[in-house]
Specification:
Layout (H helix, E strand, L loop, with lengths): L2 E5 L6 E5 L2 H11 L12 H16 L3 E2 L7 E19 L5 E2 L6 E5 L5 E10 L5 E2 L4 E2 L10 E5 L22 H10 L4 E6 L1 H4 L3 H8 L3 E4 L9 E6 H10 L4 H8 L7 E27 L10 E5 L6 E6 L2 E4 L2 H18 L7 E6 L7 H6 L10 E2 L1 H4 L16 E7 L2 E7 L13 H23 L11
Parallel strand pairs: 7-10, 10-11, 11-13, 15-18, 15-21
Antiparallel strand pairs: 1-2, 3-14, 4-5, 4-12, 4-14, 6-13, 7-14, 8-9, 14-18, 16-17, 19-20, 20-21
Helix pairs in contact: 1-8, 8-11
């Protein structure tokens, strides 16, 4: 039986609270239906999805936590539809121009109409700096202005004794790798795709990154100029012409002693983007805690509601339904909210459905609480990644949860991410997804119940 588990102060006994899996299944089927046209931000389908989630929050008795007493938090976005080109080859020799979508995808990392960058390609292994795992692929190398070529996932994929083995950590996600490339001062980053390392096939990459991308419409911190993916075959061919072997490089990258390897390849990338400025919404709600001393602390459960909308047809279907990415996560937070509403909670519970995986999770969080004085920081280095229970550890399922520690308050954040691949419409995908997220919700429930116990914060939470 699926259950959320809470511990009472009086008995310290486990008290199961059933999760309504039938309701979660219904949420999933509606959000992933063709009617919502892929739930892209600032589209009719996206607005329908946001209104649906807000209506469900209201039906569950959750308080609005958005602007002007509503469930909505407006977010200004820049939409960018890319038209990229990429050519590369050994310095001084012939260059190969790759075919867009078939061999590569690329996009601008800055909200500008035209981006152009070129530089020496340096292979940086998995592109990870993780002090808590004693891992540094960069070793202090000067990579300013370089184009970084890197593997997807993390070294645990090939060595179960490092990181979390085959359990994907945040360091294995492309989002982290691009952030780290920016910190290194690189001009751009190119990810080498394999189905095993990415956990999804090339058609998912091609479809996801050839449609409109969204970024926050606000000043940005320094970033790389562009990012992209190349097929394994394209990377293998380019490296071979430069006298390098991708298999050997991959084996070397799995060792702690790895250092960046100049490839002798020069890459040139140009991205023209059609820009439009739009507004979307995060959907945020709150279950207030009942203990005056602890109600200012909260558990934040979040899952992004949007997907890719309508794009190039895949097997004749141009609607990217996003059953697994991330209608499943939204269905899970709605199921969690319904179950947690029955708890004798002393801390508050905030549920947030932001508009995207990358932009401003903090914005939704701030609607639940005023940010305390002092610097908020991730507790990853101190506490290690906190996986939301065993449900997120099965197969390719992914969940990210971490402590955000700030001054005298702490939040536990459950980010319910895609539970498997970035789904397209195909036979049985909704049923496959339902089985996965129902398994995952068991673990999330155990973790949520543990951290909703009444009483003082643990030393780790402080």
């Amino acid at each position: 039986m699926l259950a959320f588990v809470a511990t009472t102060a009086a008995s310290q006994r486990l008290s199961p609270i059933p999760v309504d899996t039938a309701a979660m299944d219904a949420h999933l089927r509606f959000l992933a239906s063709d009617l919502l046209e892929g739930r892209a931000p600032a589209t009719r389908g996206g607005r329908l999805a946001a209104e649906y989630i807000a209506a469900q929050f209201q039906a569950l008795g959750l308080e609005p936590a958005g602007a002007n007493g509503s469930y909505f938090q407006p977010v200004a976005l820049v939409g960018m539809t890319p038209q990229p080109m990429l050519s590369w080859g050994k310095a001084g020799g012939a260059t190969d121009t790759l075919v867009y979508r078939d061999a590569f995808v690329a996009w601008a990392e800055r909200p500008e109409a035209d981006i152009a960058a070129s530089g020496e390609v340096v292979f940086v292994g998995y592109g990870i700096r993780a002090p808590e795992w004693q891992w540094d692929d960069y070793k202090g190398a000067d990579l300013r202005g370089k184009v970084l070529l890197m593997l997807v996932n993390d070294p645990g994929l090939v060595d179960s004794t490092v990181f979390l083995g085959k359990i994907l950590t945040y360091y294995g996600r492309w989002t982290y790798k691009l952030e780290e490339a920016a910190r290194q001062g690189a001009a751009g980053a190119i990810l080498i795709h394999t189905t095993e390392s990415a956990t999804y096939p090339w058609e998912v990459v091609r479809g996801s990154w050839s449609v409109e991308q969204f970024k926050l419409d606000q000043p940005h911190s320094p970033s790389i100029a562009f990012a992209g993916w190349v097929t394994e075959a394209s990377a293998r061919t380019a490296l071979s012409k430069a006298g390098l072997n991708l298999d050997s490089l991959t084996r070397t990258a799995a060792r702690r002693g790895f250092r960046p390897i100049p490839t002798g390849i020069t890459a040139s990338v140009g991205v023209h983007s059609a820009l439009r400025r739009v507004e979307s919404d995060n959907v945020v709600a709150r279950l207030p805690g009942r203990d005056p001393r602890l109600a200012s602390q909260a558990v934040l459960i979040t899952a992004h509601w949007d997907h890719k909308g309508i794009g190039p047809p895949i097997r004749g279907d141009s609607i990217y339904n996003g059953a697994e990415d991330n209608a499943s996560g939204v269905a899970a937070i709605l199921g969690a909210a319904k179950a947690l509403a029955r708890l004798p909670r002393q801390r508050s519970v905030c549920t947030a459905a932001p508009h995207s995986t990358r932009p401003d999770r903090r914005g939704a969080e701030s609607r639940c609480h005023k940010r305390p004085r002092g610097d908020a920081r991730h507790g990853r280095a101190r506490h290690g990644p906190l996986d939301a229970g065993t449900g997120f550890r099965s197969g390719r399922a992914r969940g990210v949860a971490h402590y955000r520690v700030a001054a005298r308050r702490a939040w536990l954040v459950f980010s319910v991410g895609p539970l498997s691949v970035c789904a397209r419409r195909r036979p049985g995908v909704v049923d496959q997804t339902r089985r996965r997220f129902c398994r995952a919700s068991r673990g999330m429930g155990r973790a949520a119940g543990e951290h909703l116990q009444p009483g003082p914060l643990s030393s780790a939470q402080r």
